[in-house]
Amino acid sequence: MTQPATRRTVLATGAAALAAGCVGCGGDNGSGSSGGTKLTAVSDIPEGGGKVFRDQKVVVTQPAKGEFRAFSAICTHEGCTVDQVADGTIDCPCHGSRFHIADGSVAHGPATRPLPKKSIKVEGNSILLT
Ligand code: FES
């Protein structure tokens, strides 16, 4: 006869997962799945530059070797999609706003607000959207 999980057991398990800060890391289910969606390969993101993923509306940058950042690709001025990363900035084609690749902050208006950060993680040679 199997014992159904008690409410206390379920809560304790949930708390343990939260405490570990590793929900979806695959430790419990043995799948090894990271819970993220593969976006690109590490080698696709140039050091000191970045790349725009129009479909996912995300821009991934590598401001310093081995450091990856991701931001929304939607310009905070009027909502165009940024279209390139060049000379240390993420550039919007509509009215010329530029954002720093390191933190998404405004380098050049008319935008006044930074690009919102997106969550990514590097796993092996892959960059995953989490
Ligand atoms: S929408 Fe990007 S600069 Fe205006």
UniProtKB/TrEMBL annotation:
Keywords: 2Fe-2S, Disulfide bond, Iron, Iron-sulfur, Metal-binding. The keyword Iron-sulfur applies. GO terms for molecular function: 2 iron, 2 sulfur cluster binding; metal ion binding; monooxygenase activity; oxidoreductase activity, acting on paired donors, with incorporation or reduction of molecular oxygen. GO terms for cellular component: membrane. The keyword Iron applies. Pfam families: Rieske. Residues 37-129 form the Rieske domain. Its cofactor is [2Fe-2S] cluster. Iron-sulfur subunit of the cytochrome bc1 complex, an essential component of the respiratory electron transport chain required for ATP synthesis. The bc1 complex catalyzes the oxidation of menaquinol and the reduction of cytochrome c in the respiratory chain. The bc1 complex operates through a Q-cycle mechanism that couples electron transfer to generation of the proton gradient that drives ATP synthesis. PANTHER family: CYTOCHROME B-C1 COMPLEX SUBUNIT RIESKE, MITOCHONDRIAL (PTHR10134). This is Cytochrome bc1 complex Rieske iron-sulfur subunit.
